[in-house]
Amino acid sequence: MKYLFILMFFGSFFSCNYFEKKKLNSETILIEELKTFKWNELDRYPTFETCDASIDFQETKSCFEQTVVMHISNYFQANELVVNQKVSDTILMDFLVTNIGNINISYIQSQALTQDQIPHLDSIIGNSLASLPKLYPAIKRSQQVQAAFQIPLILVVK
Q1: Which residues contact 18 (CB under 8 A, 6 or more apart)?
Q2: In a domain, 42, yes or no
Q3: Tens digit of pLDDT for each residue in 92-138?
Q4: Terminus of the chain with fewer CB atoms < 10 Å: N or C?
């Protein structure tokens, strides 16, 4: 009994380390979280009022892209362009949707012929985007975030 008591005493004395809880440093947690964080993916695409009923991620994405392209296309059709030569070009438009739902054009890439025939192309596209319906920003981890996009616009003027 005496040996059992001594064994239990030393066992409880040295086993205290097994009951200690390791504290995690907040920086360690942050570093681990940032390793798993996918910076290039959104939880929800920017949406227009007309697209808000779509729940699926891909449906929201396509609705957003189609609304922007159709709105610009309708704006070009409403404002007739007069050119000296036939213009056929794929214009690449880079733009940013801010975290408050505004659209800012970053860059518009077009051929030299298009720029010569339609010198105010940037302002025409900018004016068309200014008249878009209300836009809700992209969502990442329940936060409204900025998101950059590139959309090709096919321009054919005869």
Answers
A1: none
A2: no
A3: 999 999 999 899 999 999 888 888 888 888 888 888 888 888 899 99
A4: N
